[in-house]
């Protein structure tokens, strides 16, 4: 269960707050895009980054000369947000239109992963997450490539989760209006694969297991 801190306390729409750690993990694992906040001399900046989870940490990677990575590796406090959009809620009144979504905010500071073998492990874990079995087929990262890559991790010890899936919330006075109301679902579909020209004769790999209900049919 997620612990509640002053930063992670959900104050707006508290009925949407979720304390189940597994829900947090699912949101991160499905999203894989984290928006990371930093404060620079010119003001606040939010940058989207690939972000993945291994056990109870999230990881990001980038070039050694990246301004974001250089700032974060110093351990400055930040937050990382993940959002999955699940659909529009269409009400009988304009005011009550809303959305279904799942969101998570992780608070804390990043630290650098310095051990070469550990960097290699978590980077390969990410590849396996998006394309199972692929690390058994491709050329793995060289020592030079690993040295040029900065990997940072942040613990999932402080986070908040909100889930909105409550359907239409029309006012009682509007229920008899002859207007269609309901949910317009929004789904991300993964695939089919699009090979480069030189690979069109090769057997197509099957990555559907990583995406279950999101894989195209």
UniProtKB/TrEMBL annotation:
<dbReference type="InterPro" id="IPR024747">
    <property type="entry name" value="Pyridox_Oxase-rel"/>
</dbReference>
<dbReference type="InterPro" id="IPR012349">
    <property type="entry name" value="Split_barrel_FMN-bd"/>
</dbReference>
<dbReference type="Pfam" id="PF12900">
    <property type="entry name" value="Pyridox_ox_2"/>
</dbReference>
<protein>
    <submittedName>
        <fullName>Putative flavin-nucleotide-binding protein</fullName>
    </submittedName>
</protein>
């Amino acid at each position: 269960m997620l612990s509640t801190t002053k930063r992670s306390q959900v104050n707006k729409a508290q009925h949407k707050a979720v304390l189940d750690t597994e829900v947090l993990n699912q949101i991160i694992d499905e999203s894989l895009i984290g928006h990371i906040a930093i404060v620079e001399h010119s003001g606040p900046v939010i940058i989207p980054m690939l972000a993945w989870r291994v056990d109870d940490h999230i990881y990001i990677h980038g070039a050694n000369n990246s301004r974001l990575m250089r700032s974060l590796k110093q351990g400055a406090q930040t937050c990382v947000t993940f959002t999955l959009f699940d659909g529009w809620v269409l009400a009988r009144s304009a005011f009550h239109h809303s959305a279904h979504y799942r969101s998570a905010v992780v608070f804390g500071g990043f630290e650098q992963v310095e051990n070469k073998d550990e960097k290699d492990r978590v980077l390969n874990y990410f590849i396996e997450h998006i394309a199972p079995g692929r690390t058994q087929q491709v050329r793995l990262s060289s020592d030079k490539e690993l040295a040029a890559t900065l990997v940072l991790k942040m613990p999932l010890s402080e986070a908040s989760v909100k889930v909105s899936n409550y359907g239409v919330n029309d006012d009682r006075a509007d229920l008899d209006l002859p207007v269609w109301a309901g949910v317009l679902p929004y789904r991300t579909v993964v695939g089919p694969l699009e090979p480069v020209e030189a690979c069109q004769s090769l057997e197509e790999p099957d990555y559907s297991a990583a995406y279950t209900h999101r894989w195209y049919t």
